[in-house]
Structure formats: C-alpha cells, structure tokens
From TrEMBL:
<feature type="transmembrane region" description="Helical">
    <location>
        <begin position="397"/>
        <end position="417"/>
    </location>
</feature>
<feature type="transmembrane region" description="Helical">
    <location>
        <begin position="142"/>
        <end position="159"/>
    </location>
</feature>
<protein>
    <recommendedName>
        <fullName>Multidrug-efflux transporter</fullName>
    </recommendedName>
</protein>
<keyword id="KW-0050">Antiport</keyword>
<keyword id="KW-0406">Ion transport</keyword>
<dbReference type="InterPro" id="IPR048279">
    <property type="entry name" value="MdtK-like"/>
</dbReference>
<feature type="transmembrane region" description="Helical">
    <location>
        <begin position="104"/>
        <end position="122"/>
    </location>
</feature>
<keyword id="KW-0813">Transport</keyword>
<dbReference type="GO" id="GO:0005886">
    <property type="term" value="C:plasma membrane"/>
</dbReference>
<feature type="transmembrane region" description="Helical">
    <location>
        <begin position="429"/>
        <end position="447"/>
    </location>
</feature>
<feature type="transmembrane region" description="Helical">
    <location>
        <begin position="331"/>
        <end position="355"/>
    </location>
</feature>
<feature type="transmembrane region" description="Helical">
    <location>
        <begin position="367"/>
        <end position="385"/>
    </location>
</feature>
<feature type="transmembrane region" description="Helical">
    <location>
        <begin position="200"/>
        <end position="225"/>
    </location>
</feature>
<keyword id="KW-0812">Transmembrane</keyword>
<dbReference type="GO" id="GO:0042910">
    <property type="term" value="F:xenobiotic transmembrane transporter activity"/>
</dbReference>
<feature type="transmembrane region" description="Helical">
    <location>
        <begin position="20"/>
        <end position="43"/>
    </location>
</feature>
<dbReference type="InterPro" id="IPR050222">
    <property type="entry name" value="MATE_MdtK"/>
</dbReference>
Length: 466
C-alpha cells in the first residue's frame, strides 16, 4: 500500500482555494527569479557593450549554443518538478523526497559529462555558427569559461525546479537575487580590472557568472540536504533506479527536445544573421536579450501553471486543472499584449542603453523589437498552453508545437524573407511574430479540444484497473 504522510504546512495546498491567488502567489516570485537570472546576460551585455560591438557579438554567438546544451538538463529538471508536484498533490511525502534525490543524482552526472564535452568542442562549435576572425577568439574563450559552470548551473536548476514543484517559490528567488547582486559587482571587476588586478575582457564576464552560479548551487544543495523546506534529499537514495530514471526520461526528453528545438532554431538564425555582418549580429543579440527579459512573465505563468496543474492532476481534480489553464491564458495574453505596446514605444531608448555609441546597432535593434512586440500576447498564450500540457504529463505535445513553430515556420520564413526578398535582415525579424501567432493558434485549439483531459481520464482508469 502506498505510504502517505502529511506534507509540511510551510507549502500552501494548491489543490483548493482561490485559483487566482494560487497562480499569482506562484507566478510572481517565479517571474522575479527568472528576470533576475536573465540579468546575468543583460549585465554581461551592458558591460561588454563598453568594449564595443565585437564583444557583444562574440557573446551573442555563444548564447544559443549554451542554451542548446543546457536544454537537456533543463528538460529533465522539469520532469523531476512534474513528478514531485504530482506526488505532493497526492500527499505522498516519501515519493516527493525520493524523486528529488533521484533528480539530483541523475542531473549531477549529466552535468559533468556535458561540461567535459563542451569544453573540448568550443572552437568547432563557434566556427560552425559562423564566428568571423574578429570575434572567434573571444567567443571561444567565453564558451569555454561558461562550460565550467554547467555543473553549478544544472544543480541550481534542480533545486529551483524541485522547490517550484512543491510550491516553495520565494526561496529560490532570494538566492538568485543575492547572486545577481554579486555578479553585478564582479562583472566590471573581472572585465575591466581594478588597480593592480588586470581585467580579463570577455572571459571575465563568463568567470563572474561561473563564481556566482557555484555559490547558488551550493546553497541550494545544502537546503535540500537539511530538509527543512519541504524536501529532504538523501545520499542513500542517490543510486541508479532504472525504472524511475526511465519515467524521468520519458517525461523529460520531450521537454529537453522542445528546448533543444528552440535553441537549435536560435542557432540556425544566428547562422543567417552572421551573413549580414557583426553590427547586425550585435543588434540581434541585444534584441534577443531584451526579448528574453520581456517574455519572462509568460514563462513565469507557464511554470506556475505547470505546478498548479501538476498538483491538481495528482489530486485527481481535472476540472480545477482546466480552470487554472483558462485563467492563466487570459492573464498571459492580455498582460503581455500591454507589455508589448510599451516596448514598441520605448524600443530605441532601451537599445541605446546597451550600446550607447553605435547608432546603426541601435536602429537595427529597435526595429527588431518593434516588429516582435505586437505578438507578445500570443507568445504568452503559447507558453501557458505548454505549461498546462507539461503539468498534465503530456510533454510530447509541447515538443510538437515547438517544432511546428520554430522549424516548420520561423526558420523557413526567416530564410526565405532574408534571402529572397528586398527585406534582407528585416525578414529575419518578421519570422518571429509570424511563428508566434501560428504556434499559439495550434496550442490553443488543441487545448480547447479537450483531448488532453480525455487522456488523463483514460490514464487514471488504466491505473485503477491494474
């Protein structure tokens, strides 16, 4: 018989009470934490912009490849979060702790493996995405330094995802806040130097991030070991459980592939962008970083939706899970549409903040943002739909929608418009809103069809009749 224990009262029960209150209480700290994490890249861009457009371009080339590699670990941590959320919804604390220990164990070894591989293939990868001789050296150095931090970054991903799975979302946010403030101080020190300490340039930005990521990982792991925040991991449970690992991979691989599809599409777009010169690469890098910060509310509501839907599915409250999806979709769509309008108006001042002395880069980046901004609402809608499907355990659906959006729409449209029309690089910018609209439409139509609910009911029936 399944052992059940009361889960600590420190984490609010998300299977009852006001859905709006639960959603907001989860989403706000997640949004803040994600915004703060994006500050790593934005802080790097701000200080490197003082070195010139080539420094920004070097880091811009590294970013999509780094994201591609990190996507594998991020997808598996999402799987751990979903399993933990459903265990908490079922009030099975033993399974919460065991699943958390297994997640830490699997991700730790994966991160070590990826760190070793990426360090030695840094230069071929940078050449593959089209790094020119003027930025090749800096892009390789930045990538190699960043690879050292994969273990720390993955471990903090685990901590953050597990805490979110049980609804404890404020603690990770506080840790991220502390490390971002530290990075804010370390970045200019390591990039430019101070006194007798000689700056490291582009490498200094990566080193500052690795140090702060290491601190956050150690703090998070210590909290999990202590077991006073709703989850207690144990070394005795960190051994290969192939059945559990199989379940984790069945949930996590589609999510990893989804994020890999996103990163791969970003990488291919970078290949297209590099054909227009380093100024356009810098403009693209700034635009994507500003975009990543602005769409964080969509990702925040998506993750909050995953947690809420996961816990309610675990508690067998499918109708309540659907209500979560409906409300979250409305908030994300109307909220991000408003943000998009503001960003459209203030596009040039925002881009000038990053590269104040390069009018052409400012102009190109501002145009990129203005073209994307009106589609932010549908981008938010798509992310929330993914959150519903992930929380319900159907990560394959999110994968298929992402492949459709990025590989069947965005990249082909970007290639055709930039290479076969007079739009040139502006054709790349237009591929973003076109793919956002079509992907949101597909996800929303599937959600409203109710097929995902039927599958949940069928799954529950099969489990009850085993």
């Amino acid at each position: 018989m399944r052992e059940k224990k009361n889960i600590p009262d420190k984490e609010k029960n998300l299977t009852e009470g006001s859905i709006l209150s639960s959603l907001v209480n989860l989403a706000v700290p997640i949004i803040l934490a994600n915004a703060l994490q994006s500050m790593y890249q934005l802080i790097d861009t701000f200080w490197l912009g003082r070195l010139g457009a080539n420094a920004v371009a070097a880091v811009s080339l590294s970013f999509p490849i780094l994201f591609l590699i990190l996507s594998l670990g991020a997808g598996l941590t999402l799987a751990g979060s979903v399993i933990v959320a459903q265990a908490k919804g079922a009030k099975n604390q033993r399974n919460v702790n065991y699943s958390s220990s297994q997640t830490v164990f699997v991700i730790f070894f994966l991160s070590i493996l990826l760190s070793i591989i990426t360090y030695f293939v840094a230069e071929p990868l940078m050449k593959l995405v089209g790094a020119g001789p003027e930025i090749l050296s800096d892009s390789v150095i930045y990538f190699k330094y960043s690879s050292f931090g994969f273990m720390f970054l993955f471990m903090f991903f685990v901590f953050q995802s597990l805490m979110r799975g049980i609804g404890n979302v404020w603690l990770p946010m506080y840790i991220v806040l502390g490390t971002v403030l530290l990075n804010l101080a370390l970045d200019p020190l390591f990039i430019f130097g101070f006194g007798s300490f000689e700056g490291l340039g582009v490498a200094g930005a990566a080193l500052a991030s690795v140090i702060t990521q290491g601190i956050s990982a150690l703090v998070g792991f210590f909290i999990l070991l202590k077991g006073k925040r709703g989850i207690k991991v144990k070394f005795s449970q960190m051994k290969w459980d192939f059945e559990w690992t199989k379940r984790m991979f069945s949930l996590g691989i589609p999510s990893s592939l989804e994020q890999s599809a996103r990163a791969g599409a970003m990488t291919m777009l970078v290949v297209l962008v590099t054909g227009f010169g380093s100024e356009v690469v810098a403009a693209y890098g700034i635009g994507v970083r500003v975009l990543s910060l602005i769409v964080i509310p969509a990702l925040g509501f998506s993750i909050a939706t995953t947690t809420l839907v996961g816990q309610n599915v675990g508690a067998r409250q499918i109708k309540r899970a659907e209500k979560v999806g409906n409300l979250s979709a409305k908030i994300a769509f109307f909220g991000l549409t408003s943000v998009g309008l503001l960003l459209f108006v203030f596009a040039e001042p925002i881009t000038a903040f990053f590269v104040p002395n390069d009018p052409q880069v400012i102009k190109d980046s501002a145009l990129f943002i203005k073209i994307m901004a009106p589609s932010f609402g549908v981008l938010g809608l798509q992310q929330v739909m993914n959150g519903v499907f992930n929380g319900a355990g159907f990560t394959q659906v999110s994968l298929l929608i992402s492949i459709f959006s990025l590989w069947m729409i965005r990249f082909p449209v970007a290639f055709l418009l930039s290479n076969n029309t007079s739009l040139d690089e502006v054709g790349l910018w237009w591929s973003f809103p076109i793919s956002n609209v079509l992907a949101a439409a597909v996800g929303f139509i599937y959600y409203k069809s109710g097929h995902w609910k039927s599958m949940l009911i069928k799954r529950r029936y099969l489990l009850n009749n085993k």
